[in-house]
Design goal:
alpha+beta, 2 helices, 19% helix, nucleus, membrane, GFRP_sf
Length: 90
């Protein structure tokens, strides 16, 4: 999966950080040290880490991800990252 969303609440910019949903790459979630949780009342799961977003972004950069865009949505900060993949057949 070449795209990843990372988000956190502005008041929680020191962590925890949301790093994926229930369909995220399991190997990547292990690399980040994420735990899968389901909040009471939600019918979906999310992956979280205790690290602040800066450390998560640093870890993702080390394995080839680059920030495409970042925005604030209400009280939430969201980063979209992408990793180039090798073309098939090379």
């Amino acid at each position: 999966m070449p795209y990843v969303f990372v988000s956190t609440q502005i008041r929680l910019e020191t962590g925890p950080t949301n790093v994926g949903d229930e369909y995220s790459d399991a190997a990547l979630m292990i690399y980040l040290g994420a735990r899968k949780t389901t909040m009471l009342g939600n019918n979906f799961s999310e992956y979280h880490v205790d690290d602040p977003p800066r450390l998560v972004l640093d870890k993702l950069e080390k394995i080839g991800f680059r920030v495409l865009t970042m925005t604030g949505v209400g009280q939430t900060l969201v980063w979209c990252l992408h990793k180039e993949t090798e073309p098939e057949g090379t």
